[in-house]
Amino acid sequence: MKNKLIAPSLLSADFGHLKRDIEMLNDSQSDWLHVDVMDGRFVPNISFGFPVMKTVKEHSKKFVDVHLMIVEPEKYVEEFVKQGADLVSVHYEACTHLHRTIQLIQDSGAKAGVVLNPSTPVLMLEDIIELVDLVLLMSVNPGFGGQKFIKNTYKKIAETKDLILSNNSTALIQIDGGVNLDNAAKLFDAGADVLVAGNAVFSSDNPAKTIELLKV
Protein backbone atom coordinates (compact mmCIF):
# COMPACT_ATOMS: atom_id res chain seq x y z
CA MET A 1 0.00 0.00 0.00
CA LYS A 2 1.23 3.51 -0.80
CA ASN A 3 0.65 6.71 1.11
CA LYS A 4 -1.67 9.57 0.12
CA LEU A 5 -4.61 7.28 -0.44
CA ILE A 6 -8.17 8.54 -1.04
CA ALA A 7 -11.11 6.40 0.06
CA PRO A 8 -14.44 7.85 -1.12
CA SER A 9 -17.27 6.95 1.25
CA LEU A 10 -20.18 5.08 -0.28
CA LEU A 11 -22.43 6.61 2.38
CA SER A 12 -22.55 9.79 0.29
CA ALA A 13 -23.21 8.06 -3.04
CA ASP A 14 -26.54 8.12 -4.91
CA PHE A 15 -28.23 4.89 -3.86
CA GLY A 16 -30.56 5.10 -6.81
CA HIS A 17 -27.51 4.79 -9.04
CA LEU A 18 -25.12 2.78 -6.90
CA LYS A 19 -23.60 0.78 -9.77
CA ARG A 20 -22.97 4.00 -11.72
CA ASP A 21 -21.22 5.65 -8.78
CA ILE A 22 -19.06 2.59 -8.08
CA GLU A 23 -18.05 2.42 -11.74
CA MET A 24 -17.19 6.13 -11.62
CA LEU A 25 -14.85 5.36 -8.72
CA ASN A 26 -13.36 2.45 -10.67
CA ASP A 27 -12.41 4.86 -13.44
CA SER A 28 -11.12 7.54 -11.05
CA GLN A 29 -7.86 7.95 -9.13
CA SER A 30 -9.50 6.78 -5.91
CA ASP A 31 -7.51 4.08 -4.13
CA TRP A 32 -10.05 2.51 -1.79
CA LEU A 33 -13.82 2.31 -1.47
CA HIS A 34 -14.95 3.11 2.08
CA VAL A 35 -18.10 1.36 3.33
CA ASP A 36 -19.70 2.71 6.54
CA VAL A 37 -21.84 0.14 8.33
CA MET A 38 -24.08 1.57 11.09
CA ASP A 39 -26.51 -0.34 13.29
CA GLY A 40 -28.53 2.40 15.02
CA ARG A 41 -27.15 1.27 18.38
CA PHE A 42 -23.45 2.11 18.49
CA VAL A 43 -24.23 5.25 16.50
CA PRO A 44 -27.59 7.07 16.11
CA ASN A 45 -28.07 6.10 12.48
CA ILE A 46 -28.60 3.03 10.28
CA SER A 47 -26.84 2.66 6.96
CA PHE A 48 -26.54 -0.67 5.16
CA GLY A 49 -25.21 -4.20 5.40
CA PHE A 50 -24.73 -7.33 3.35
CA PRO A 51 -27.12 -6.57 0.42
CA VAL A 52 -25.13 -3.43 -0.40
CA MET A 53 -21.87 -5.30 0.13
CA LYS A 54 -23.04 -7.77 -2.52
CA THR A 55 -23.38 -4.91 -5.01
CA VAL A 56 -19.97 -3.52 -4.02
CA LYS A 57 -18.38 -6.95 -4.50
CA GLU A 58 -19.98 -7.36 -7.93
CA HIS A 59 -18.91 -3.99 -9.31
CA SER A 60 -15.99 -2.48 -7.39
CA LYS A 61 -12.44 -2.89 -8.65
CA LYS A 62 -11.02 -0.96 -5.70
CA PHE A 63 -9.67 -2.08 -2.32
CA VAL A 64 -12.80 -2.38 -0.14
CA ASP A 65 -12.43 -0.72 3.26
CA VAL A 66 -15.29 -1.59 5.67
CA HIS A 67 -15.81 0.53 8.78
CA LEU A 68 -18.06 -1.21 11.32
CA MET A 69 -19.88 1.27 13.56
CA ILE A 70 -21.79 -1.48 15.31
CA VAL A 71 -21.99 -3.24 18.64
CA GLU A 72 -20.58 -6.77 18.83
CA PRO A 73 -18.71 -6.47 15.52
CA GLU A 74 -17.05 -9.84 16.10
CA LYS A 75 -20.36 -11.52 15.17
CA TYR A 76 -20.24 -10.14 11.63
CA VAL A 77 -16.55 -9.87 10.76
CA GLU A 78 -16.25 -13.18 8.91
CA GLU A 79 -19.32 -12.51 6.77
CA PHE A 80 -18.07 -9.07 5.75
CA VAL A 81 -14.78 -10.62 4.66
CA LYS A 82 -16.71 -13.26 2.69
CA GLN A 83 -18.68 -10.44 1.07
CA GLY A 84 -15.50 -8.81 -0.24
CA ALA A 85 -14.02 -6.66 2.52
CA ASP A 86 -10.26 -6.28 2.09
CA LEU A 87 -9.97 -4.38 5.36
CA VAL A 88 -12.33 -4.35 8.34
CA SER A 89 -12.06 -1.66 11.01
CA VAL A 90 -13.76 -1.95 14.40
CA HIS A 91 -14.18 0.62 17.14
CA TYR A 92 -12.05 0.42 20.24
CA GLU A 93 -15.17 1.56 22.12
CA ALA A 94 -17.29 -1.34 20.78
CA CYS A 95 -14.92 -4.23 21.48
CA THR A 96 -14.73 -5.90 24.86
CA HIS A 97 -12.00 -8.22 23.58
CA LEU A 98 -10.19 -6.08 21.01
CA HIS A 99 -7.17 -8.36 20.54
CA ARG A 100 -9.43 -11.30 19.79
CA THR A 101 -11.48 -9.32 17.27
CA ILE A 102 -8.38 -8.03 15.46
CA GLN A 103 -7.05 -11.59 15.26
CA LEU A 104 -10.42 -12.81 13.93
CA ILE A 105 -10.34 -10.24 11.13
CA GLN A 106 -6.82 -11.21 10.10
CA ASP A 107 -7.50 -14.93 10.40
CA SER A 108 -10.49 -14.40 8.09
CA GLY A 109 -8.16 -13.09 5.41
CA ALA A 110 -8.52 -9.31 5.69
CA LYS A 111 -6.46 -6.43 7.00
CA ALA A 112 -7.54 -5.22 10.46
CA GLY A 113 -8.08 -1.65 11.62
CA VAL A 114 -9.02 -0.11 14.95
CA VAL A 115 -11.07 3.08 15.18
CA LEU A 116 -10.99 5.82 17.82
CA ASN A 117 -13.84 8.24 18.44
CA PRO A 118 -12.81 11.90 18.82
CA SER A 119 -12.85 11.75 22.62
CA THR A 120 -10.85 8.49 22.94
CA PRO A 121 -7.13 9.06 23.69
CA VAL A 122 -4.53 7.60 21.35
CA LEU A 123 -2.70 6.01 24.29
CA MET A 124 -5.51 3.43 24.49
CA LEU A 125 -3.89 1.77 21.46
CA GLU A 126 -0.53 1.16 23.12
CA ASP A 127 -1.15 -2.57 23.66
CA ILE A 128 -2.61 -3.23 20.19
CA ILE A 129 -0.61 -0.98 17.83
CA GLU A 130 1.87 -3.69 16.81
CA LEU A 131 -0.97 -5.96 15.66
CA VAL A 132 -3.16 -3.68 13.59
CA ASP A 133 -2.79 -2.72 9.94
CA LEU A 134 -4.55 0.62 10.28
CA VAL A 135 -5.63 3.20 12.84
CA LEU A 136 -8.74 5.17 11.87
CA LEU A 137 -9.10 8.47 13.69
CA MET A 138 -12.63 9.84 13.59
CA SER A 139 -12.48 13.58 12.93
CA VAL A 140 -16.21 13.95 13.56
CA ASN A 141 -18.50 12.11 15.93
CA PRO A 142 -19.56 8.98 14.01
CA GLY A 143 -23.07 8.45 12.71
CA PHE A 144 -23.75 11.09 10.07
CA GLY A 145 -22.00 12.53 7.03
CA GLY A 146 -21.44 16.22 6.41
CA GLN A 147 -20.24 17.17 9.90
CA LYS A 148 -17.66 19.83 10.76
CA PHE A 149 -14.05 18.68 11.08
CA ILE A 150 -12.66 18.52 14.64
CA LYS A 151 -9.31 20.36 14.63
CA ASN A 152 -7.85 18.37 17.55
CA THR A 153 -7.44 15.59 14.96
CA TYR A 154 -4.11 17.08 13.90
CA LYS A 155 -2.75 16.56 17.42
CA LYS A 156 -4.04 12.99 17.44
CA ILE A 157 -2.35 12.26 14.10
CA ALA A 158 0.99 13.33 15.59
CA GLU A 159 0.40 11.20 18.69
CA THR A 160 -0.59 8.19 16.59
CA LYS A 161 2.45 8.56 14.35
CA ASP A 162 4.71 8.68 17.42
CA LEU A 163 3.05 5.55 18.83
CA ILE A 164 3.46 3.71 15.51
CA LEU A 165 7.13 4.62 15.15
CA SER A 166 8.04 3.89 18.76
CA ASN A 167 6.56 0.39 18.48
CA ASN A 168 7.95 -0.41 15.01
CA SER A 169 4.40 -0.76 13.76
CA THR A 170 3.53 -0.62 10.06
CA ALA A 171 -0.02 0.64 10.66
CA LEU A 172 -1.43 3.27 8.35
CA ILE A 173 -3.29 6.30 9.70
CA GLN A 174 -6.73 6.98 8.22
CA ILE A 175 -8.88 10.08 8.82
CA ASP A 176 -12.66 10.02 8.49
CA GLY A 177 -14.98 13.00 8.80
CA GLY A 178 -15.05 16.50 7.37
CA VAL A 179 -12.26 15.85 4.87
CA ASN A 180 -12.32 18.27 1.94
CA LEU A 181 -10.13 20.19 -0.49
CA ASP A 182 -9.33 22.78 2.18
CA ASN A 183 -7.73 20.37 4.67
CA ALA A 184 -6.62 17.29 2.70
CA ALA A 185 -3.06 18.48 2.03
CA LYS A 186 -2.63 19.57 5.64
CA LEU A 187 -3.82 16.16 6.88
CA PHE A 188 -1.36 14.35 4.63
CA ASP A 189 1.42 16.70 5.77
CA ALA A 190 0.51 15.97 9.40
CA GLY A 191 1.10 12.26 8.83
CA ALA A 192 -2.16 10.78 7.57
CA ASP A 193 -1.89 8.02 4.97
CA VAL A 194 -5.55 7.54 3.97
CA LEU A 195 -8.35 10.11 3.78
CA VAL A 196 -12.02 9.17 3.70
CA ALA A 197 -14.04 11.68 1.70
CA GLY A 198 -17.80 11.50 1.30
CA ASN A 199 -19.64 14.75 0.68
CA ALA A 200 -16.52 16.38 -0.76
CA VAL A 201 -16.51 13.80 -3.56
CA PHE A 202 -20.13 12.97 -4.25
CA SER A 203 -21.55 16.49 -3.91
CA SER A 204 -18.95 17.75 -6.36
CA ASP A 205 -19.87 18.67 -9.93
CA ASN A 206 -16.90 16.54 -11.01
CA PRO A 207 -16.26 13.79 -8.42
CA ALA A 208 -13.37 12.23 -10.35
CA LYS A 209 -11.58 15.60 -10.59
CA THR A 210 -12.19 16.22 -6.87
CA ILE A 211 -10.57 12.88 -6.03
CA GLU A 212 -7.57 13.89 -8.16
CA LEU A 213 -7.31 17.23 -6.35
CA LEU A 214 -7.57 15.61 -2.91
CA LYS A 215 -4.44 13.58 -3.70
CA VAL A 216 -2.30 16.61 -4.61
TrEMBL record:
The entry's substrate-binding residues are 9, 67, 143-146, 176-178
Residues forming the catalytic site = 36 (proton acceptor), 176 (proton donor)
Q: Its Gene Ontology biological processes?
A: pentose catabolic process; pentose-phosphate shunt
Known pathway:
Carbohydrate degradation
Please state what class of enzyme this protein is.
Answer: isomerase
So which cofactors does this thing need?
Mn(2+); Zn(2+); a divalent metal cation; Fe(2+)
NCBIfam families given in the database record: PRK05581.1-4 (NF004076), rpe (TIGR01163)
> What protein family is recorded?
Belongs to the ribulose-phosphate 3-epimerase family.
* Protein name, UniProt field: Ribulose-phosphate 3-epimerase
Q: Give the species this sequence originates from.
A: Frigoriflavimonas asaccharolytica
